[in-house]
Amino acid sequence: MAADETPVRPRRGPSMADVARLAGVSGQTVSRVANDRHNVDAATRDRVLAAMREVGYRPNNAARALRNGQFRSIGVIVFELSSVGNTRTLDAIAAAATMTGYAVNLLPVLDATQGAVSNAFTRLGEQAVDGVIILIEAHMLDEAEVLLPEGLPVVVVDSSARYDYPIVDNDQAQGARLATEHLLDLGHRTVWHLGGPPSSFAASRRRRSWEKTLTDRGCPVPPVLVGDWSAGSGYEAGKQLAADPDVTAVFAANDQMALGLLRALHEAGRAVPADISVVGFDDVEEAAHYWPPLTTVRQKFAEVGRLSVDALISEIQAGEHHHQPVSVPTELVSRGSTAPPR
Amino acid sequence: MAADETPVRPRRGPSMADVARLAGVSGQTVSRVANDRHNVDAATRDRVLAAMREVGYRPNNAARALRNGQFRSIGVIVFELSSVGNTRTLDAIAAAATMTGYAVNLLPVLDATQGAVSNAFTRLGEQAVDGVIILIEAHMLDEAEVLLPEGLPVVVVDSSARYDYPIVDNDQAQGARLATEHLLDLGHRTVWHLGGPPSSFAASRRRRSWEKTLTDRGCPVPPVLVGDWSAGSGYEAGKQLAADPDVTAVFAANDQMALGLLRALHEAGRAVPADISVVGFDDVEEAAHYWPPLTTVRQKFAEVGRLSVDALISEIQAGEHHHQPVSVPTELVSRGSTAPPR
DNA sequence: CCTCCTCATGTTTACGTCAACATTGCCGCG
DNA sequence: CGCGGCAATGTTGACGTAAACATGAGGAGG
């Protein structure tokens, strides 16, 4: 940050003054045309429009933002785009924001540790956005929270309940219950669980809900296997599960781990779903074409994205806090990877 | 765009003037501290820093941008984030841009058709970015090009050679040759191809290179099957291929179609790789855990993202055009889905 | 002891836009 | 004919920042 020796020639474009001169009107009239005000004579408007086109005028957003005191832009803090859920949520956020006339600023968190404190508060919220949607796991937020500027509207997409920001997320608990009950309803004695990393709030929500569903039904609770969301970790866990003849049903905390699990079962010669049933979580686009096609819990990322933009914008514009967390229900998508035990 | 009745109270934060007053210095000195200039007395700097912290000062980027004539922000035009390649490239772009001190503005193209012309030139490049990276297929660019503001630095990530913008992309032709030769080298008489949609330049590059590799080697060129990148389209194509006993090797133009293909072959009872070998393209994260693990061509999206940011920034700062397209070589990742014909 | 230089700091101004207030000209109505 | 009113257009100023220039204090060197 210290070195910033970039002698960039600004290359400023034409401004309202240039258009005004060419059209023979005042800058204010140009402004009125640019903002579609009705109180401009049709002939004048045409003249201004023509002048704009001729000089290639584009309004300068910086000046606008300075004048208006708002940027019409929202920031999205993400850690890694690699996660399917983040990507799909971001896509929906971008669409919703664009339709509302807001720009989307991507604020990637490059590493978990924050740099020098002197820069810190200059960094993230550098007042170029009107609000922020946070897509990173809540535990990462803990470290970063210090530098979240006060007064900046924030919406968190996470199932953590610890923050007094508005929260929007898929209903993790309901989804996990759906998955577990589906397997029990098929007649399995109990359901094993391949969970996500302990650092993830969503993972622990799913695990707890799975556990509660089992105990509610009076089923034994097998030990939890722990993965890191990756197909590789699912594969490793799958090798263990394949070796245990007691296992007839597994609920994986996401589709990628389920995929690795499937591979391990294939390699071990355990048939799915004949020997072992598998349920995933997410419903990634490819899940329908896994072998066998994966029964999974569909998360409505698009809905979550849309709702989080709604929440943020209403907070930006009205200052309203929705302290009631918004939970988007999931649904079970039944495909070929589950069947009654034999 | 006509309706814009949002009475937002600006809620401006503290400015340099507030800090200056509190610290008992001039605004200019605050500016110097904020920009890490060296010619400020240590004691004064501390005082200013303390004042900044006290009032919660954050520099106003709009004012900065207005003053400096540049935004330190780049726009990324994407059509859909759903494509794996786009997402991974975007991730790399965001990381590279952030490290260079540039913000990333996501500019989603919501639909292929553009709206009213009167808004059009107000829309996209609304002068809030210093340059643009275009991640959409080139053919979509044709329709939108009209409204690309002149003088705005642009880098295109696409293998189309038609534009006089700097171009960065994975080397599609080399990758397709790698895939085809791999199968021929294993002893297959020829290689079938499941191509991407005709609208995609990358898809046609891969197809042409596959064809050329076959003819160079004197192999017969089977008819091309056409998909739309989705696993579903791969599945449909796979059903056809599975029914043809002549088929022993298939090169799918991406991993998702390869996945659908694998599923179709499983359902038809055709063993992979014993009966049919399959090669994909992309090397998505899950490819190693498909069943069987997929041999594929790895694209270096991260590299492409990094290089495109480099190209854009050097153009922004120096006005240099790299009219020489940049091709990033791919590499073949050999896994379990390919074997010699039996 | 005076001059000149350096370095910290202050003052002025412009960046592009748009709200608020001014001005002009025209129309209708008494 | 005169006056109020309205519609179109112009003028002024402020948003927050930082470059350019100005000022002033101290130090080195003759």
Quick tags:
homodimer, 342 residues, alpha/beta, 434 Repressor (Amino-terminal Domain), Rossmann fold, 3 domains, 6-stranded mixed beta sheet, 4-stranded parallel beta sheet, 12 helices, elongated, disordered N terminus, DNA-binding
- Indicate how many domains the architecture of chain A comprises: 3
The count of strands of chain A amounts to: 12
Chain oligomer state: homodimer
Q: If you compute it from the alpha carbons, what radius of gyration of chain A comes out, rounded to the nearest whole angstrom? A: 26 Å
Region (Disordered) (chains A, B): 320-342
Protein name (chains A, B): LacI family DNA-binding transcriptional regulator
GO molecular function (chains A, B): DNA binding
Keywords (chains A, B): DNA-binding, Transcription, Transcription regulation
Structural commentary:
2 copies of one chain form a homodimer. Chain A is of the alpha/beta class and 342 residues long. Chain A folds into 3 domains: 16-59, lambda repressor-like DNA-binding domains (434 Repressor (Amino-terminal Domain), Orthogonal Bundle), CATH 1.10.260.40; 73-168 and 301-328, Response regulator (Rossmann fold, 3-Layer(aba) Sandwich); 172-299, Response regulator (Rossmann fold, 3-Layer(aba) Sandwich). The first copy, chain A, is 42% helix and 14% strand. Chain A contains 12 helices and 12 strands. Chain A has helices spanning 16-23, 27-34, 42-55, 61-68, 84-99, 117-123, 138-144, 172-185, 201-216, 231-243, 255-267, 301-318, and strands at 73-78, 103-108, 131-134, 154-156, 168-170, 192-195, 225-226, 249-252, 277-282, 295-298, 326-328, 331-333. Chain A has a 6-stranded mixed sheet with strand order 7-6-8-9-10-12, sandwiched between helices. In chain A, strands 2-1-3-4 form a 4-stranded parallel sheet, covered by helices on one side. In chain A, strand 3, helix 7 (138-144) and strand 4 form a beta-alpha-beta unit. The longest helix of chain A has 18 residues, at 301-318. The radius of gyration of chain A is 26 Å and the shape is elongated. The relative contact order of chain A is 0.12. The structure holds a DNA duplex (30 and 30 nucleotides). Chains A, B: InterPro entries: HTH_LacI, LacI/GalR-like_sensor, Lambda_DNA-bd_dom_sf, Peripla_BP_I. Chains A, B: Keywords: DNA-binding, Transcription, Transcription regulation.
